[in-house]
Amino acid sequence: MRTTIDLDDDLVREAMDLLGARTKRAAIQRSLEELVRRKRRERLRGKLGKLDLDLTLSNLDRMRQDES
């Protein structure tokens, strides 16, 4: 998707340096991928925190043995 946006040059340069990106496009692409990955992980953590898992070490060991 082609989009024209006005970005802070210093911020883009810093992102390029930190990411080792050679182009603005690469820096923005990698930054967006990282942002999406982090937000998905946060959402998953939030959902996992709401589950009532009654797992003990012995239950996990038993489950592993059943898989074998």
Can you tag this structure with a few keywords?
3 helices, mainly alpha, 68 residues, elongated
Order of helices and strands: HHH
Q: Number of DSSP helices?
A: 3
Q: Globular, elongated, flat, extended or rod-shaped: what is the shape?
A: elongated
Overall number of structural domains: 1
Structural class of the helices, strands and pairings?
Answer: mainly alpha
C-alpha termini separation? 48 Å
Topology:
Layout: H1 9-19, H2 24-48, H3 57-67
Helix pairs in contact: 1-2
Characterise the protein shown here.
Helix content is 69%, strand content 0%. By secondary structure, it is mainly alpha-helical. It has one domain (9-67). Helix 1 crosses helix 2 (24-48). The N and C termini lie far apart (48 Å).
Task: Put the structure in a nutshell.
The protein has 68 residues and is mainly α. The protein has one domain.
